[in-house]
Amino acid sequence: MLLDLKAHSERGSVSFAVRVQPRASKNEVAGLMDGALKIRLQAPAVEDRANEALCEFLAEILKRPYSAVRILAGDRSRTKRVEVFGVTTAQVEALLEHDA
Hints:
With 100 residues, the protein is an alpha+beta fold. It has a single domain (5-99), classed as Conserved Hypothetical Protein Mth637, Chain: A. The chain is built from 2 helices and 6 strands. Strands 1, 2, 3, 4, 5 and 6 form a 6-stranded mixed sheet that branches.
């Protein structure tokens, strides 16, 4: 199964599904799960800490500023839709090859 990516050329961004596993031993990309990028985070899923950690982690591994990452949908769910500005679909797909 492939990662469900949507490029928005008019905005210069890419959106994709993410499946978050909070309270993991380390922050990492853990492969693909039902078309979503599975990401393990050390942060707990309380007081928006996991969402903030997700944005920080994606910004770090995609070499973008924190402000370039936003959660479009699912801020109270493990499955989220994330948008990252200033990246290409190839850069997001490379996360699977690099870390998984």
